[in-house]
Amino acid sequence: MTRIDPLTDEEIGDALDFLKPTIERLGFLPNSQRIMAHKPELLHGINALYKAIMHPTEESVSPGLLYLIGNASSLAAGCMYCVAHSGGAAAHNGIEEEKIAAIWEFETSDLFTEGERVALRFAQAASAVPNMVADEDFAELKQHYSDYQIVEMLSIISMYGFFNRWNDTLATPLEHGPSAFAEKAISGAGWAAGKHGEAAE
Fold it and tell me: pLDDT band at residue 81, thresholds of 50, 70 and 90?
């Protein structure tokens, strides 16, 4: 059960206009943001950060890989709410469900390229507490990615670090769409909603 109630559309009020792009992109407003709406300034800040991280340029890595990195980061942190959301976003951006389900086997699975393995290894190490990233990780990253791309990847790892702590602390109720994706695509790999349950949209 959630520890702070998500606000309704009526309670969010005028701020809902600002959130229309999120609603159009996902088909719903995530409960994580409905809870953030208790402090509207936070909602504006986190959305601006998300837009900056995901803004595509010619040098960017693909959105699918960024969400796959976010998925690995969330798995390492143990936030099943964020695992469902990032997995669904990765699938929406061209990552095969089979690959998302095999993410714990990325070191040995033929589904992953060496560049993806290096990125996911980095995501796991950067998400560990205490931090496990070593100079060797950056040496490997620089064999496959530019400094710009590494900064981009660390940005999404850091953003999911915020979301992992936020949603796991609050036991944010999982919406139907991400829950349905996770049940279909990754429950066989050990995913379970746990304390996030399922909430009506």
Answer: very high
pTM for the whole structure? 0.94
Measured CA to CA, the distance from residue 42 to residue 174 in angstroms comes to 20
CA distances from residue 139 to 11, 25, 60, 133, 149 in whole angstroms, order as listed: 49, 36, 19, 11, 14
188, 97 Cβ separation under 8 angstroms = no
Q: Encoding tokens for residue 119?
A: 């990125």
What is the CA angle 52-145-67, rounded to 5? 45
Residue ranges and CATH numbers for the domains of the chain are 7-55 (no CATH), 61-191 (1.20.1290.10)
Burial 52-62 (b: 16+ CB within 10 A, else e): ebbeeeeeebe
Counting beta carbons within 10 angstroms of the beta carbon of residue 44, is it exposed (0 to 12), middle (13 to 18) or buried (19 or more)? middle
Read off the pLDDT band of 2 (50, 70, 90). confident
